[in-house]
């Protein structure tokens, strides 16, 4: 006994959904594998450049966090501080030339460019971008640029996801999903935080508290795969260790201990605003320089190097002061574990100078991220504030190092508008889950008060504001409105028989204001359609008017709809094919013509439904 039609259709829909989900999962795995190996290459190139630039010529091996896992051991070194500036300038020259010569969109942080591609470029990123970004960022960061790996790996991962989608000729929606999955995979691998990578990819796209729900599962899948591959390249003893060293364990024993964290939030907010303004002020200033953009990163590196080395001497030649250059992860780890060794004055000074060097480095167009510098700025500044609060109220602030952890999350959440992923990320970097309550408190406050001063300018507030979702809300309004309610019956149209000569057609057009002309056979079945524009191309060839007929003018590949279809389907055809009218047939098998649906009338129906919805919400 055959299944009922509605049950058969339901089974077909479920099968289609299953196949679509399976395909998305397989594609996310493919992106995760590719990004995982890409992260290994990117990380190795960065360490390689450090070994044969800063170490080789400046005698400087930047202190790194325990979990970095450098594959190179460094001999006894003699530091030559001013050679750091020379190395930085040379590296920025090479990186700047590569970026602006081959892929100008790879300049700067990279995360903003990936966000822009998601919202405004239909998920498309040029195939050359991930390759140029990998090499240029490794050179810039490896030679001492004050930047991080989050921006480059975001754009590298997004580029890989987009490349996979374009090679497989996927739809714009699938391209955007794989682009975001690549972002999540890159962040999840390089920071060894797969959950944070998945949430980051969904959250960083919007400036309000909103997630791109469609990308969470693919991003989680690709992030897990990339993380699993990337960690296999690390030494076994640090493979599953938090990036900032051994697990940190802090907590609070009384709600009163939240008071110092409130004070911390009040201190972090203006610092975040100042950082964003200085970063974009520096970017504006470099864009105004009357030099080729290829040379701007070198100028920025020279100025940042002067500031960094000058600060090193002012700080009494303490090696920790050089955290204002490079990633600064080693000094950040020291702030998290042993902030008292550095002292509050040096920690706060490192944070403030890091704001300047990062603005000069990345603001000049050098390829590098801002998450790494933001954690150093927020962590060191908050560790210094924590030491002062510990001296002032030792009972309520017993662990000053805890302020470094909470502060780095609060600072970045305030400037990035990504509080949830930031909380998860910082937890993964430190392994400390005892400070979840104060971290949530501080990030909520900094997110709420810092939203107007955002670091990623390509974010849009909500899905409704995204060009990528512009059609979604029209579909919701038209849901349930069938074509039968709007189309015009065929009696009001002039039909053309397939055997009608071109001469007759031309004379009929002269007395008719119709634009679309359905072509039918003897049984009134539609066999094709043409427009008056199709006929105009024959007007100056009257010699063939008697020879050609409607079959020669029409197109037989007709897109049609049925009365049972809703206007969502019709509007999709109008938009995708740029049509003004669609034939309405009894069913797609018989192709018996019933009438025509106009685009203008569909839009009128949409506007009427919007007005009705507004009036209903007012009541």
Any overview of this molecule?
The chain has helices at 5-51, 54-58, 81-102, 111-120, 128-142, 150-167, 172-190, 194-203, 216-231, 258-288, 296-314, 329-342, 344-363, 371-392, 400-416, 419-430, 436-450, 472-478, 502-510, 532-536, 550-553, 567-577, 599-618, and strands at 488-489, 496-497, 516-520, 526-531, 581-585, 593-598. The chain starts with a helix and ends with a helix. Strand 3 (516-520) and strand 4 form a beta hairpin. The longest helix is centred in the N-terminal third of the chain and has 47 residues, at 5-51. The protein folds into two domains: 21-469, Clc chloride channel, CATH 1.10.3080.10; 472-618, CBS-domain (Roll). It has a three-stranded antiparallel β-sheet with strand order 1-6-5. The protein is mainly α and 619 residues long. Helix 3 (81-102) runs antiparallel to helix 11 (296-314) and helix 5 runs antiparallel to helix 6.
């Amino acid at each position: 006994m055959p299944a009922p039609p509605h049950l058969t259709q339901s089974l077909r829909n479920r099968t289609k959904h299953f196949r679509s989900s399976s395909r998305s999962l397989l594609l996310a795995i493919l992106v995760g594998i590719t990004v995982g190996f890409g992260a290994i290459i990117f990380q190795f190139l960065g360490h390689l450049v450090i070994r044969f630039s800063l170490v080789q010529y400046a005698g400087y091996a930047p202190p790194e966090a325990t979990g970095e896992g450098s594959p190179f051991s460094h001999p006894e070194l003699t530091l030559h501080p001013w050679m750091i500036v020379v190395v930085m300038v040379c590296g920025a020259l090479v990186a700047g030339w590569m970026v602006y010569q081959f892929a100008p969109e790879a300049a700067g942080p990279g995360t903003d460019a990936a966000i822009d591609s998601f919202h405004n470029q239909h998920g498309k990123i040029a195939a050359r971008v991930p390759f140029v970004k990998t090499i240029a960022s490794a050179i810039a960061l490896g030679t001492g640029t004050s930047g991080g790996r989050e921006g480059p790996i975001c754009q590298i991962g997004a580029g890989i996801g987009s490349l996979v989608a374009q090679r497989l000729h996927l739809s714009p929606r699938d391209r955007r999903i794989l682009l975001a999955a690549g972002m999540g995979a890159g962040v999840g691998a390089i920071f060894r935080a797969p959950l944070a990578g998945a949430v980051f990819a969904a959250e960083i796209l919007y400036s309000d508290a909103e997630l791109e729900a469609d990308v969470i599962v693919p991003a989680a899948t690709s992030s897990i795969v990339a993380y699993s591959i990337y960690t296999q390249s690390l030494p076994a003893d640090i493979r599953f260790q938090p990036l900032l060293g051994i697990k940190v364990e802090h907590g609070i024993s009384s709600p009163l201990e939240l008071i110092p964290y409130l004070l911390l939030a009040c201190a972090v907010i203006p610092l975040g605003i100042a950082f964003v303004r200085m970063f974009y002020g520096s970017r504006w200033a470099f864009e105004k320089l009357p030099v080729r953009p290829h040379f701007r990163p070198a100028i920025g590196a020279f100025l940042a190097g002067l500031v960094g080395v000058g600060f090193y001497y002012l700080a009494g030649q303490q090696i920790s002061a050089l955290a204002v250059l490079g990633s600064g992860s080693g000094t950040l780890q020291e702030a998290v574990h042993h902030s008292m060794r550095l002292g509050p004055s040096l920690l706060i000074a490192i944070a403030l100078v890091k704001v300047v060097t990062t603005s000069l480095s990345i603001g000049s167009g050098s390829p590098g991220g801002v998450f790494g510098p933001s954690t150093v700025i927020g962590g060191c500044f908050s560790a210094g504030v924590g030491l002062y609060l510990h001296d002032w109220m030792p009972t309520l602030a017993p662990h000053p190092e805890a302020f470094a952890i909470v502060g780095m999350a609060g600072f970045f959440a305030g400037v990035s508008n990504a509080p949830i992923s930031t909380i998860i990320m910082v937890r993964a970097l430190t392994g400390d889950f005892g400070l979840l309550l104060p971290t949530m408190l501080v990030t909520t406050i900094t997110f709420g008060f810092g939203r107007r001063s955002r670091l990623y300018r390509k974010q849009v507030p909500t899905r409704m504001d995204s060009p990528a979702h512009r059609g979604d809300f029209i579909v919701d309004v038209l849901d349930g409105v069938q074509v039968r309610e709007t189309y015009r019956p065929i009696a009001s149209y002039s039909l053309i028989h397939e055997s009608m000569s071109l001469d007759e057609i031309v004379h009929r057009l002269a007395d008719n204001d119709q634009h679309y002309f359905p072509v039918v056979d003897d049984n009134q079945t539609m066999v094709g359609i043409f427009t008056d524009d199709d006929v105009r191309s024959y007007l100056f060839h009257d010699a063939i008017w008697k020879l050609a007929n409607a079959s020669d003018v029409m197109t037989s590949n007709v897109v049609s709809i049925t009365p049972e279809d809703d206007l969502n389907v019709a509007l999709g055809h109008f938009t995708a094919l740029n049509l003004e009218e669609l034939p309405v047939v009894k069913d797609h098998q018989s192709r018996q013509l019933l009438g025509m649906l106009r685009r203008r009338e569909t839009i009128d129906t949409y506007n009427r439904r919007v007005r009705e919805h507004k009036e209903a919400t007012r009541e």
